[in-house]
Amino acid sequence: MNTFSQESLKSSEEDYYDFLSLTGHTDRNFLFYRTLEESTWNIKSDTEDYIHVWNNNNLGHTNNFFNNDNIKYKIYAPELFTSYNKEAPFGYNDGGLWQGKGFNTAISAGFRAEAYGFSLSVKPQLSWSQNKNFELMPAYSGISEYGYFWGHCDAPQRFGDSDFWNFDWGDTEIRYSYKSITLGFGTESIWLGPMQLYPVLHSNNAPTYPKFDIGLRRTKINIPFTNIYLGDIESRLWVGRLEESDYFDSNNDNNYNQFSGFTFAYAPSFIKGLTLAVTKVTLNKWGENFWRYALPNWATNTIVTSDGNSGEDQKAAISAEWLFPTVGLDIYGELGFDDFLSKGFKVYEYARYPFHAMTYAIGIKKSFEISKQKKLRGVLQLEWNNTEGSQDYQMWSGSGYNFGFHYQITQGYTNKGQWLGSGIGYGGNSQNISFTLYSPHGYEKIFLGRNNIDNNYVFYQSVDAGKEETQYNGARYFTAFKANLYLGIENLYYFNPDLSIKYSFVYDMVINPTYTPGYNKTQGAWRDYDYLNNFYCSLALKYQF
Predict the structure, then answer these.
(1) Phi-psi category of 128—alpha, beta or left, where left has phi over 0 and alpha has psi -120 to 50?
(2) Which residues, at least 6 apart from 538, have a Cβ–Cβ distance to it below 8 Å?
(3) With contact defined as beta carbons under 8 Å apart, do 51 and 36 qualify?
(4) What is the average pLDDT value for the chain, to the nearest integer?
(5) b/e map 344-368, b = 16+ CB within 10 Å
(6) Distance, C-alpha 319 to centroid of its chain
(7) 98-125, pLDDT tens digit by residue?
(8) CA–CA separation, 372 vs 457, rounded Å?
(9) β-strand partners of 449
């Protein structure tokens, strides 16, 4: 019953394999660095059919070419996805697709070939967005009228005034691997860390970008000349080029940023199920000092490039996961760090005030045996994420703070106008709970969640020491937060082992969509709100060869 297959990030197949990993019936080929290349899963041969509930469905597989074990190929299932938003944009972790108001469509397909250590994956995405009009907030000064509403950042509220097509190379790359050493060039999406919805540093939410990477895949470490096993490690270093959207500014000299990253993960042998990791990423202007910021220990921000831009934006995360396969329980989380303190990573600096520019995300998953006879199994998942600015920024005069912004890298933590990490952006918080019931014909899922997109905007308006009448503003903005409250279902059904349909329906209540403050102190604290009743639906068809 062994199955090996590269799976697209956050696909139904990958989520299913991850569900089986809760009870130890699949082996993860990775620790915390995941792309299509690394998302390879092995269902253990002693797994019983009532556990592997999709054992009769075609989940995709790799084939030998002319019975040669050294030459293999795979056809990635063609998939057609379409969605509709009635009142406002809704949707995330969808690559180059922008799920704006109205209809949205994406088509993807591809193939993979392997031979003697080399591999080639080609899996592009073609998408279309109707991009209908909705009420926007005034854009930040100096950027497009469709741009972000505060802070210099390339995260448009709307991508222009008409429908548009977008071609993205998606999970496309060429790679060479020798044992655990691997290097590649391409545009495959990266997923960093254990979070399932909104990772702190990297997801497949934004369009892909060209990059080079080198590192070690998940590798067992033993003390030389002994049989003492120390655990598994994984490490990767990459350098890529990010691109500005068409809705930021008219300066063509600053369109590209370098994005460098380094991650190291360790799963100790003496604490079964535990995985720890540290990751550091850097944004700096493209074109000079190309390799300097790829080094994980480089910290200066004094570089000045030929176009007059200077410095960098460095962020880091500490990730942890503890899996208990005997009871089907997984506990995980991340701490994110930005705008490191003046003395860097010094113990006394973080002992003095450890929460400076800190974010966090936590989650828990638990699997359940519903009916062994009917092959019904379920998973309950809860995630909580917070990227709001720390309290010490209330004392910072003249400017606000957001984890996704940086005055030296004006496009912010984005690529082509979409967030690289958390799909809902930064500066807010979210809570999400879901239950998924797996059965031989697919799954049924129900979920409930809420989020604030960017509370930092309200904090900036209310408590910034550089503003006049701060106390009055604070009273007016006391209830000016924007929020989303959503309830939805998502179902997957196999018509036959090869053909599946996935559909979802979501009610999304958008509360105070334009952060409208009260007119005076009394109305700011006690007032009625504006609402948008957004209805979201999606449909996806997939055929596995």
Answers:
(1) beta
(2) 81, 82, 83, 84, 91, 502, 503, 504
(3) no
(4) 90
(5) eeeeeebeeeeebbbbbbbbebbbe
(6) 14
(7) 999 999 999 999 999 999 999 999 999 9
(8) 50
(9) 432, 486
